[in-house]
Write a structure and sequence with these properties.
Helix content is about 70%, strand content about 5%. The chain is mostly helical. The protein folds into 2 domains: about 10-70, Winged helix-like DNA-binding domain superfamily/Winged helix DNA-binding domain (Arc Repressor Mutant, subunit A), CATH 1.10.10; about 75-215, Up-down Bundle (Four Helix Bundle (Hemerythrin (Met), subunit A)), CATH 1.20.120. It has a 3-stranded antiparallel sheet. It is built from 9 helices and 3 strands. The protein has helices at about 10-20, 35-40, 45-55, 75-95, 105-120, 125-140, 145-165, 170-185, 190-215; strands at about 30, 60-65, 70.
Length: about 220
Amino acid sequence: MSYAVPPTRTAAVVRQLRNEIVTGELRPGTLIKDAELASRLGVSITPVREAIAQLSVEGLIDIAPNRTRHVTRVTQKNALELIDVMSVLACAGFEWGVDNLTETHVALMRQRQKEFVEALRAGNVLAASAAGADFSTIVILASGNRELQSMVDLVVARTMRILAMTAESNLWGTWIEGHEAILTLLEAGDTQGALARYRQIYVDHRNLVERELFEDQ
């Protein structure tokens, strides 16, 4: 019988704040106050300060010279550069793995797509993000390159935190439609068509992010 090891208070605060940033509950520019956070989360000041330091390293919280802390503001350059990096890494992994996919792999991708859509309908952004990422992970791991998958995981997580997409965001539609098209192509045995469609997802996603999130910049 296995037991889950409870996180430290600092780890728990990091996870909670990270999730709030991902879901947009803590919006870019929000002032972070140690005492208020400690009171709200029911912990002492120390784990809050340690969590803020960790999230600062991750680029999620900015610490000004006067020591004030704010949730990092999203910039067009920052978001688009992350999408570009994610595209290069993920598309390489998809290309290397797509020809190794079996019927079992494709069936699992179909299941992840279902979970992805259902989580969005339920408003669960974190579950949707995990299921959507797993869709690509299945293909990338089929390439046998686990180091690449580790790098993709880091960039995907960073991108999701920066974009902080809500369940109602129009950006999800690009992935839902793209995944469905890829599955249809894979089920028809057209791996090269599936690869081309996967690449197109990133082109469309980047254009939407630039147009809808940064139209005033």
